[in-house]
Specification:
Layout: H1 2-16, H2 19-41
Helix pairs in contact: 1-2
Amino acid sequence: MFLVMFVIMLPIALKTGDPIKGWEAGLTWVFIPAGKPSAAALGIPPQPASR
């Protein structure tokens, strides 16, 4: 979680001047990777890599 805070949230909050934007970016970063195991649990097959 410290990685997300210092690599994702802090630079966005400093650049925009809005800590809420940094917080939103941190939430987005957390929930996107969480979707892959959830999709697997629902039986949704992974998408093949496009070439």
